[in-house]
Protein backbone atom coordinates (compact mmCIF):
# COMPACT_ATOMS: atom_id res chain seq x y z
CA UNK A 1 0.00 0.00 0.00
CA UNK A 2 1.34 3.41 -0.96
CA UNK A 3 1.17 6.18 1.63
CA UNK A 4 0.98 9.69 0.32
CA UNK A 5 1.58 12.79 2.40
CA UNK A 6 -0.74 15.64 1.45
CA UNK A 7 -0.16 19.26 2.34
CA UNK A 8 -3.09 20.64 4.36
CA UNK A 9 -3.42 23.47 1.84
CA UNK A 10 -4.33 20.87 -0.78
CA UNK A 11 -7.04 19.08 1.22
CA UNK A 12 -9.83 21.22 -0.22
CA UNK A 13 -8.98 19.87 -3.67
CA UNK A 14 -9.81 16.33 -2.55
CA UNK A 15 -13.26 17.41 -1.33
CA UNK A 16 -13.75 20.66 -3.25
CA UNK A 17 -17.16 21.56 -1.77
CA UNK A 18 -17.91 19.55 1.36
CA UNK A 19 -14.24 19.78 2.35
CA UNK A 20 -14.14 23.58 2.29
CA UNK A 21 -13.43 25.12 5.70
CA UNK A 22 -16.34 27.51 5.06
CA UNK A 23 -18.78 24.68 4.37
CA UNK A 24 -21.28 24.66 7.23
CA UNK A 25 -23.84 21.98 6.35
CA UNK A 26 -25.16 24.07 3.48
CA UNK A 27 -28.32 22.63 1.99
CA UNK A 28 -27.46 23.25 -1.64
CA UNK A 29 -24.66 24.64 -3.79
CA UNK A 30 -25.56 25.36 -7.40
CA UNK A 31 -22.90 25.90 -10.07
CA UNK A 32 -24.20 27.82 -13.10
CA UNK A 33 -22.50 28.10 -16.48
CA UNK A 34 -23.59 29.59 -19.79
CA UNK A 35 -21.24 29.47 -22.75
CA UNK A 36 -23.03 32.11 -24.85
CA UNK A 37 -23.03 34.92 -22.25
CA UNK A 38 -19.88 33.83 -20.40
CA UNK A 39 -21.80 33.60 -17.15
CA UNK A 40 -20.13 31.62 -14.38
CA UNK A 41 -22.00 31.75 -11.08
CA UNK A 42 -22.33 29.92 -7.79
CA UNK A 43 -25.52 30.06 -5.73
CA UNK A 44 -25.17 29.02 -2.09
CA UNK A 45 -28.22 28.04 -0.04
CA UNK A 46 -27.21 27.62 3.58
CA UNK A 47 -30.41 27.11 5.55
CA UNK A 48 -34.14 27.39 4.82
CA UNK A 49 -35.61 26.43 8.22
CA UNK A 50 -37.07 29.92 8.77
CA UNK A 51 -38.05 30.50 5.15
CA UNK A 52 -36.70 30.83 1.61
CA UNK A 53 -33.02 31.74 1.33
CA UNK A 54 -32.72 35.44 0.53
CA UNK A 55 -29.41 37.10 -0.19
CA UNK A 56 -27.85 39.42 -2.72
CA UNK A 57 -25.84 38.68 -5.82
CA UNK A 58 -22.21 39.80 -5.83
CA UNK A 59 -20.21 40.17 -9.04
CA UNK A 60 -16.49 40.16 -8.38
CA UNK A 61 -13.37 39.40 -10.36
CA UNK A 62 -12.27 36.53 -8.11
CA UNK A 63 -8.71 35.27 -8.47
CA UNK A 64 -9.98 31.70 -8.87
CA UNK A 65 -13.01 29.48 -8.37
CA UNK A 66 -11.89 28.39 -4.89
CA UNK A 67 -12.01 32.01 -3.77
CA UNK A 68 -15.50 32.45 -5.23
CA UNK A 69 -16.76 29.26 -3.58
CA UNK A 70 -15.35 30.26 -0.21
CA UNK A 71 -17.02 33.67 -0.50
CA UNK A 72 -20.46 32.32 -1.38
CA UNK A 73 -20.28 29.77 1.44
CA UNK A 74 -19.36 32.39 4.04
CA UNK A 75 -21.82 34.97 2.75
CA UNK A 76 -24.80 32.61 2.53
CA UNK A 77 -24.16 31.37 6.06
CA UNK A 78 -24.01 34.96 7.28
CA UNK A 79 -27.39 35.67 5.69
CA UNK A 80 -28.97 32.83 7.68
CA UNK A 81 -27.97 34.40 10.97
CA UNK A 82 -28.64 37.94 9.79
CA UNK A 83 -32.28 37.08 9.07
CA UNK A 84 -32.64 34.97 12.21
CA UNK A 85 -31.38 37.59 14.64
CA UNK A 86 -33.46 40.29 12.97
CA UNK A 87 -36.64 38.27 13.38
CA UNK A 88 -37.32 37.74 9.68
CA UNK A 89 -38.88 34.57 8.32
CA UNK A 90 -36.09 34.00 5.85
CA UNK A 91 -33.24 31.59 5.39
CA UNK A 92 -29.74 32.36 4.16
CA UNK A 93 -28.52 32.35 0.59
CA UNK A 94 -26.14 34.22 -1.66
CA UNK A 95 -24.95 34.23 -5.26
CA UNK A 96 -21.59 35.18 -6.70
CA UNK A 97 -20.90 35.94 -10.34
CA UNK A 98 -17.30 35.44 -11.38
CA UNK A 99 -16.19 38.34 -13.54
CA UNK A 100 -15.71 42.07 -13.94
CA UNK A 101 -19.03 43.90 -13.57
CA UNK A 102 -17.73 46.87 -15.55
CA UNK A 103 -16.75 44.89 -18.66
CA UNK A 104 -18.55 41.53 -18.60
CA UNK A 105 -22.05 42.28 -17.37
CA UNK A 106 -24.59 42.57 -20.19
CA UNK A 107 -28.41 42.43 -20.30
CA UNK A 108 -28.17 38.92 -21.77
CA UNK A 109 -25.82 37.91 -18.97
CA UNK A 110 -28.24 39.11 -16.27
CA UNK A 111 -31.24 37.51 -17.96
CA UNK A 112 -29.46 34.17 -18.05
CA UNK A 113 -28.63 34.51 -14.36
CA UNK A 114 -32.30 35.23 -13.69
CA UNK A 115 -33.20 31.99 -15.46
CA UNK A 116 -30.89 30.05 -13.15
CA UNK A 117 -32.49 31.73 -10.12
CA UNK A 118 -35.93 30.86 -11.47
CA UNK A 119 -34.96 27.21 -11.88
CA UNK A 120 -34.73 26.96 -8.06
CA UNK A 121 -38.49 27.59 -7.78
CA UNK A 122 -38.27 30.20 -5.03
CA UNK A 123 -35.93 28.35 -2.70
CA UNK A 124 -33.46 31.18 -3.36
CA UNK A 125 -34.52 34.83 -3.72
CA UNK A 126 -31.88 37.20 -5.02
CA UNK A 127 -31.19 40.92 -4.55
CA UNK A 128 -28.39 43.35 -5.31
CA UNK A 129 -24.94 43.36 -3.75
CA UNK A 130 -21.45 44.42 -4.84
CA UNK A 131 -21.29 44.95 -8.61
CA UNK A 132 -25.08 44.94 -8.99
CA UNK A 133 -27.62 47.73 -9.39
CA UNK A 134 -31.35 48.20 -8.99
CA UNK A 135 -31.58 48.23 -12.79
CA UNK A 136 -30.00 44.75 -12.85
CA UNK A 137 -32.67 43.49 -10.45
CA UNK A 138 -35.38 45.03 -12.64
CA UNK A 139 -33.97 43.04 -15.55
CA UNK A 140 -33.85 39.81 -13.53
CA UNK A 141 -37.48 40.41 -12.52
CA UNK A 142 -38.53 40.05 -16.18
CA UNK A 143 -37.62 36.35 -16.08
CA UNK A 144 -38.32 35.42 -12.45
CA UNK A 145 -40.45 36.70 -9.56
CA UNK A 146 -37.82 35.47 -7.09
CA UNK A 147 -35.95 38.75 -6.82
CA UNK A 148 -36.11 41.74 -4.47
CA UNK A 149 -34.49 45.17 -4.44
CA UNK A 150 -36.18 46.18 -7.70
CA UNK A 151 -36.84 49.85 -8.38
CA UNK A 152 -39.65 51.71 -6.68
CA UNK A 153 -41.04 52.51 -10.13
CA UNK A 154 -41.55 48.77 -10.61
CA UNK A 155 -43.16 48.28 -7.23
CA UNK A 156 -40.02 47.43 -5.28
CA UNK A 157 -38.19 48.94 -2.33
CA UNK A 158 -35.35 50.37 -4.38
CA UNK A 159 -31.66 50.49 -3.51
CA UNK A 160 -31.20 48.93 -0.03
CA UNK A 161 -27.86 50.68 0.61
CA UNK A 162 -29.22 53.73 2.49
CA UNK A 163 -31.17 51.50 4.89
CA UNK A 164 -28.17 49.20 5.34
CA UNK A 165 -26.07 52.24 6.25
CA UNK A 166 -28.71 53.49 8.68
CA UNK A 167 -28.75 50.14 10.46
CA UNK A 168 -24.96 50.19 10.74
CA UNK A 169 -25.20 53.71 12.10
CA UNK A 170 -27.70 52.53 14.74
CA UNK A 171 -25.40 49.67 15.75
CA UNK A 172 -22.39 51.99 15.83
CA UNK A 173 -24.22 54.42 18.11
CA UNK A 174 -25.27 51.58 20.42
CA UNK A 175 -21.65 50.41 20.67
CA UNK A 176 -20.60 53.99 21.41
CA UNK A 177 -23.19 54.20 24.17
CA UNK A 178 -21.95 50.91 25.63
CA UNK A 179 -18.28 51.94 25.55
CA UNK A 180 -18.51 55.60 26.53
CA UNK A 181 -21.84 55.84 28.40
CA UNK A 182 -23.32 58.08 25.71
CA UNK A 183 -24.01 57.70 22.01
CA UNK A 184 -22.97 61.28 21.27
CA UNK A 185 -20.58 61.12 18.29
CA UNK A 186 -19.53 64.77 18.34
CA UNK A 187 -15.73 64.85 18.07
CA UNK A 188 -15.37 61.05 17.90
CA UNK A 189 -12.68 59.94 15.44
CA UNK A 190 -14.11 57.43 12.96
CA UNK A 191 -12.25 55.70 10.13
CA UNK A 192 -14.53 54.40 7.37
CA UNK A 193 -12.79 51.86 5.15
CA UNK A 194 -14.60 51.48 1.85
CA UNK A 195 -16.95 54.16 0.54
CA UNK A 196 -19.30 52.41 -1.83
CA UNK A 197 -23.01 53.17 -1.57
CA UNK A 198 -23.27 51.94 2.02
CA UNK A 199 -20.00 53.53 3.12
CA UNK A 200 -20.96 56.90 1.70
CA UNK A 201 -24.33 56.88 3.44
CA UNK A 202 -22.63 55.99 6.72
CA UNK A 203 -20.22 58.89 6.23
CA UNK A 204 -23.23 61.16 5.75
CA UNK A 205 -24.79 60.13 9.07
CA UNK A 206 -21.48 60.39 10.92
CA UNK A 207 -20.62 63.84 9.57
CA UNK A 208 -24.10 65.14 10.40
CA UNK A 209 -23.52 64.13 14.03
CA UNK A 210 -20.21 65.94 14.26
CA UNK A 211 -17.83 62.98 14.10
CA UNK A 212 -14.32 63.56 12.78
CA UNK A 213 -14.36 61.20 9.80
CA UNK A 214 -11.46 59.76 7.82
CA UNK A 215 -12.18 57.78 4.65
CA UNK A 216 -10.18 55.15 2.81
CA UNK A 217 -10.84 53.46 -0.53
CA UNK A 218 -8.95 52.10 -3.54
CA UNK A 219 -10.76 54.59 -5.81
CA UNK A 220 -9.10 58.00 -5.52
CA UNK A 221 -11.75 59.77 -7.57
CA UNK A 222 -14.45 58.42 -5.29
CA UNK A 223 -12.50 59.53 -2.22
CA UNK A 224 -12.30 63.10 -3.48
CA UNK A 225 -15.98 63.12 -4.37
CA UNK A 226 -17.08 62.00 -0.89
CA UNK A 227 -14.57 64.29 0.82
CA UNK A 228 -15.92 67.33 -0.96
CA UNK A 229 -19.55 66.32 -0.47
CA UNK A 230 -19.38 65.78 3.31
CA UNK A 231 -16.31 67.78 4.31
CA UNK A 232 -14.42 64.77 5.68
CA UNK A 233 -10.76 63.75 5.54
CA UNK A 234 -9.04 61.37 3.15
CA UNK A 235 -6.67 59.00 4.94
CA UNK A 236 -3.22 59.28 3.36
CA UNK A 237 -1.15 57.13 5.72
CA UNK A 238 0.24 53.67 5.08
CA UNK A 239 -1.32 51.65 7.93
CA UNK A 240 -4.88 52.57 8.76
CA UNK A 241 -5.25 49.85 11.40
CA UNK A 242 -2.58 51.35 13.66
CA UNK A 243 -4.01 54.87 13.61
CA UNK A 244 -5.46 56.14 16.88
CA UNK A 245 -9.23 56.31 16.58
CA UNK A 246 -12.44 55.83 18.52
CA UNK A 247 -14.25 53.73 15.92
CA UNK A 248 -13.10 51.60 12.99
CA UNK A 249 -15.89 51.06 10.44
CA UNK A 250 -14.96 48.42 7.82
CA UNK A 251 -17.34 48.84 4.87
CA UNK A 252 -15.47 47.07 2.07
CA UNK A 253 -14.86 43.33 1.77
CA UNK A 254 -14.54 41.02 4.75
CA UNK A 255 -11.81 39.44 6.90
CA UNK A 256 -10.04 42.71 7.77
CA UNK A 257 -10.02 41.56 11.40
CA UNK A 258 -7.32 38.92 11.36
CA UNK A 259 -4.04 37.78 12.94
CA UNK A 260 -2.09 40.64 11.37
CA UNK A 261 -4.47 43.53 12.07
CA UNK A 262 -5.70 42.79 15.59
CA UNK A 263 -2.29 43.34 17.15
CA UNK A 264 -2.08 46.70 15.35
CA UNK A 265 -5.53 48.05 16.16
CA UNK A 266 -5.59 51.32 18.09
CA UNK A 267 -9.36 51.62 18.23
CA UNK A 268 -11.96 51.24 20.96
CA UNK A 269 -14.88 50.09 18.80
CA UNK A 270 -15.32 48.16 15.55
CA UNK A 271 -18.67 48.69 13.86
CA UNK A 272 -19.03 48.54 10.10
CA UNK A 273 -21.05 47.30 7.15
CA UNK A 274 -18.73 44.65 5.69
CA UNK A 275 -19.80 41.01 5.85
CA UNK A 276 -17.65 38.40 7.59
CA UNK A 277 -15.31 40.91 9.21
CA UNK A 278 -13.75 38.29 11.47
CA UNK A 279 -11.41 36.08 9.46
CA UNK A 280 -11.89 33.43 12.16
CA UNK A 281 -15.06 34.02 14.16
CA UNK A 282 -14.05 32.23 17.35
CA UNK A 283 -10.35 33.07 17.45
CA UNK A 284 -10.54 36.70 16.42
CA UNK A 285 -13.70 37.43 18.38
CA UNK A 286 -11.86 36.24 21.47
CA UNK A 287 -8.76 38.28 20.64
CA UNK A 288 -10.84 41.46 20.35
CA UNK A 289 -12.48 40.74 23.71
CA UNK A 290 -9.10 40.20 25.34
CA UNK A 291 -7.91 43.56 23.98
CA UNK A 292 -11.03 45.33 25.25
CA UNK A 293 -12.19 46.33 21.77
CA UNK A 294 -15.97 46.46 21.45
CA UNK A 295 -17.09 44.59 18.35
CA UNK A 296 -20.62 45.14 17.03
CA UNK A 297 -21.41 41.87 15.18
CA UNK A 298 -21.56 42.54 11.45
CA UNK A 299 -24.47 40.22 10.65
CA UNK A 300 -26.59 42.14 13.14
CA UNK A 301 -25.82 45.77 12.39
CA UNK A 302 -25.71 45.45 8.59
CA UNK A 303 -29.18 43.85 8.46
CA UNK A 304 -30.94 47.05 7.33
CA UNK A 305 -30.69 46.05 3.69
CA UNK A 306 -32.46 42.74 4.14
CA UNK A 307 -35.10 44.43 6.28
CA UNK A 308 -35.67 46.80 3.37
CA UNK A 309 -36.05 44.11 0.69
CA UNK A 310 -38.10 41.86 3.01
CA UNK A 311 -40.75 44.58 2.86
CA UNK A 312 -41.35 43.59 -0.77
CA UNK A 313 -42.28 40.07 0.32
CA UNK A 314 -44.40 41.08 3.32
CA UNK A 315 -45.91 44.27 1.85
CA UNK A 316 -45.10 46.59 4.73
CA UNK A 317 -44.24 50.25 4.26
CA UNK A 318 -41.46 52.71 4.92
CA UNK A 319 -42.52 53.38 8.51
CA UNK A 320 -42.12 49.74 9.51
CA UNK A 321 -38.84 49.43 7.58
CA UNK A 322 -37.39 52.31 9.57
CA UNK A 323 -38.79 51.01 12.88
CA UNK A 324 -37.25 47.56 12.39
CA UNK A 325 -33.94 49.11 11.34
CA UNK A 326 -33.84 51.49 14.29
CA UNK A 327 -34.37 48.51 16.60
CA UNK A 328 -30.86 47.35 15.64
CA UNK A 329 -29.72 49.89 18.25
CA UNK A 330 -31.58 48.10 21.06
CA UNK A 331 -30.56 44.62 19.94
CA UNK A 332 -26.90 45.63 19.67
CA UNK A 333 -26.89 47.12 23.15
CA UNK A 334 -28.58 43.99 24.53
CA UNK A 335 -26.02 41.70 22.88
CA UNK A 336 -23.03 43.73 24.10
CA UNK A 337 -24.37 43.57 27.66
CA UNK A 338 -25.12 39.85 27.38
CA UNK A 339 -21.61 39.13 26.13
CA UNK A 340 -20.16 40.96 29.12
CA UNK A 341 -22.36 39.22 31.69
CA UNK A 342 -21.86 35.76 30.15
CA UNK A 343 -18.15 36.37 29.57
CA UNK A 344 -18.33 35.41 25.91
CA UNK A 345 -17.53 37.24 22.68
CA UNK A 346 -20.11 39.57 21.20
CA UNK A 347 -20.14 37.46 18.05
CA UNK A 348 -20.98 34.36 20.10
CA UNK A 349 -23.71 36.20 21.99
CA UNK A 350 -25.35 37.27 18.72
CA UNK A 351 -24.90 33.84 17.17
CA UNK A 352 -26.52 32.13 20.17
CA UNK A 353 -29.68 34.22 19.82
CA UNK A 354 -29.92 33.58 16.09
CA UNK A 355 -29.27 29.84 16.41
CA UNK A 356 -31.84 29.52 19.20
CA UNK A 357 -34.51 30.93 16.91
CA UNK A 358 -33.58 28.51 14.12
CA UNK A 359 -33.55 25.55 16.52
CA UNK A 360 -36.95 26.52 17.92
CA UNK A 361 -38.48 26.64 14.44
CA UNK A 362 -36.89 23.31 13.54
CA UNK A 363 -38.40 21.71 16.65
CA UNK A 364 -41.83 23.10 15.73
CA UNK A 365 -41.61 21.33 12.39
Quick structural overview:
The protein has helices at residues 11-14, 65-86, 107-118, 134-141, 161-180, 197-208, 220-230, 259-262, 281-291, 298-301, 304-314, 318-342, 346-364; strands at residues 28-34, 39-47, 53-54, 57-60, 91-98, 124-125, 189-193, 212-216, 233-234, 247-250, 269-270, 294-295.
Helix count, DSSP H or I runs of 4 or more residues: 13
- Overall pLDDT metric: 93
- Strand composition percent: 5-15%
Query: What share of residues is helical?
Result: 40-55%
Distance between the termini: 48 Å
Spans of at least 5 consecutive residues whose pLDDT stays below 50 are 1-6
Shape designation: globular
Q: SSE order in H/E notation?
A: HEEEEHEHEHHEHEHEEHEHEHHHH
**Main sheet summary:** 6 strands, mixed
Report the strand count. Answer: 12
Q: Given the helix and strand composition, which structural class is it?
A: alpha/beta
The radius of gyration is 20 Å
General description of the model:
The protein is an alpha/beta fold and 365 residues long. It is 45% helix and 14% strand. The protein has 13 helices and 12 strands. Strand 4, helix 2 and strand 5 form a beta-alpha-beta unit. The longest helix has 25 residues.
